Here is the input.
Amino acid sequence: MSKRPAPKAPPSYLVAEKRRQRTVWTSIVTLAVLLIAGIVGYATYATQRADDITYPKATAPGDNTGFALGAGPVKVDVYTDFMCPGCKNFKDASWPALETMIRENKITVVYHPVAILDHSSQGSKFSTRAAAISACAADSGKFNEFNAAMYAQQPAQGTAGLTNEQMIDMGRGVGLGDDFVKCAEDKKYGNWVREITNTMSERGFRLTPTVTVNGKQLETPSPEKITEAVTAATK
Amino acid sequence: MNSLLSRWSVIQPWLTVAVRLGLAAVWIIAGGNKVGDLDASARAVHAYDLMPFAAAQILGAVLPFLEIALGLLLIVGLATRLVGGVSAVVLVLFVGGIISAWARGLAIDCGCFGGGGALATGQEPEYLGRLLEDTGFLAMAAFLIVFPRGWLALDNWLSDDPQLPRRRVASTETETEESAR
Here is the structure.
């Protein structure tokens, strides 16, 4: 027995009823807090989405989520992230074969510089910054050159990556001029990068690099597999 | 036996506090990592390939805020049993999602603590580790369902519930009530 004095204790059924009501109200308030949190989440997202997207001038005809290289009949889509090591390997191993097929007018490559690794650059969002600046390079007609320079000096995944200034210098190095510099400094295409990364997800691709030939994803994009698929698509 | 029980009645309320704060940290870190990039959160949901993109966008936007709210509720200790229950339900859904992705052989990043669900080549999906992790969190949520009463909780301030933990004096009484439940 407790030593506490308990004078005038109310009947126990009243106490129980009071307690029950309190539990009900606490539960309602708690669920309301969770519901409100969810609504705030959706509202935040909806407001962010309302942002204006500036599309680069250089996007591919019929697909404003990438840049076209070449004008051949078979369409090859390439999705890469500037920080992804596998994308550099792809670039080194397979790009020469793709360039050859572009020159031979067999394929059109649509290049999508997506940003899936923003969480791997110590908060600097290197993937998005790099992709946005590459869009500026595309507007000035030198996407391929800038892209190659970027992969040649790819920072390790998990580091803060290159600064915007370093990337602008790299652009100057491949012959890009003042328009490019201004575009890069204005951070014009960040929202566009967000949009094309979402589009990649919407199309059901979950890996970088992703390579598709006439819309069909290749499991392992090696030069041989790509050439094979292009030959098959040409027939 | 008696002394063991009375020791438990002293430890349990503090254990509940520890579990509450531990699970709160999990939710707040998980939600906090996602909240800065809701697009990535939506893509992570969509990567499981369980719903159309528009639905994944809604769930992806709602989830981080829900997680943070669960964490805050656990810190203040409001409706601990209910919040433990909601946590358990959410975790069971996560476990289901991971198992289904694994079963279908999807190569995805779980997106559990941020990230957009997409993998870079060379990154391996880590299904087993994530499942074990979630099972641990689920055990914590289950503990809160069974033992919701602990110190430093808003629940105590709101209620004169006789089943609330008391200091040593009342230990015999608490025991009988505890076993009566």
